[in-house]
Amino acid sequence: MLKSKIAIVTGSSSGIGRSIALVFARERAKVVVCGLDFKLAKETGDLIKAQGGEALVVQSDVCDPTACQNLVKTTIEHYGRLDIACNCAGIGGPLALTADYSLEAWDKVIKTNLSGVFYGMQAQIAAMLANGSGSIINIASVLGIVGAARSPAYVAAKHGVIGLTQTAAWEYGTSGLRINCVGPGYIETALEKAMIVSKDIHEKLIGAHALGRLGKVIEVAELVAWLASDKASFVTGAFYAVDGGYLAK
Predict the structure, then answer these.
(1) Lowest-pLDDT range, 35-44, 114-123, 194-203?
(2) What is the number of other CB atoms lying within 10 angstroms of the CB of residue 235?
(3) CATH topology of domain 6-187+218-241
(4) Cα–Cα distances in Å, from 28 out to 8, 25, 53, 83, 162?
(5) Of 13-17, 22-26, 70-74, 191-195, where does mean pLDDT reach its minimum?
(6) Residue 136 has what pLDDT?
(7) Any idea what DSSP says for residue 242?
(8) Exposed end of the chain (fewer CB within 10 Å): N or C?
């Protein structure tokens, strides 16, 4: 499905990002794995190679626009082009009411989850325009559609990611680029486990999903791989929830 495509996956050192990188490689893309923690990113690269895939591991910080430019530059120097980018890096941030939310925490969450996507897209779009084609998939959240108490920065950032995706899709559609957004619900990752501090909270989260369970990282990755492929050739500017029915209520 992605044979010989060159793909960047930010935040691919763990969780959803790692799963996306592995699925891309399974579909025979050449994957540029990147994250803040080089050791964890290398683990992802090693997993890709163990399943017979090809990976280039790069340490990169999405909060640094120069690093985002250098990531794309390194990709092109190594592989000659960029076909696919998945902007997955993100953080949850602390929980607090809006009036009590620290400015430091606000700035960090917005810079990572929204500005980081913007910085990445600027570099990725420029490279794809040189090809005349490309697919970008941004990872937002179901909380990019609805609100959630005590998460003002995260919710604002993910709403912004959806708007940014839609805007860029309109800007570059006639240039051969497709730009879409995926909104995971509550997925079984280390980040989610850190949020589940009691059995009661776990049961409430499960009850918020029509399927009666949390999602799995592979379930997000499979959709991302489809959006990255030519099978989704008429799909752009779209938001796809992978949420077990969370938004259906």
Answers:
(1) 194-203
(2) 15
(3) Rossmann fold (3.40.50)
(4) 13, 5, 7, 13, 28
(5) 191-195
(6) 99
(7) E
(8) C
Find, among 73, 9, 66, the residue nearest to 41 by Cα: 9
The question of whether 79 is a catalytic residue gets the answer no
Q: Which of 79, 101, 119, 154 is catalytic?
A: 154
Alpha-carbon span 6 to 29, nearest angstrom: 6
Domain ranges of the chain: 6-187+218-241
Average pLDDT along the chain? 95
Name residue, tokens 């909270």. 201
H helices within 63-212, ranges in order? Answer: 65-79, 103-110, 116-131, 152-172, 190-195, 199-207
Comparing C-alpha atoms, which of 3, 2, 20 is closest to residue 11? Answer: 20
Sign of the torsion angle spanned by Cα atoms 189, 190, 194, 200: positive
- The residue type found at 222 is E
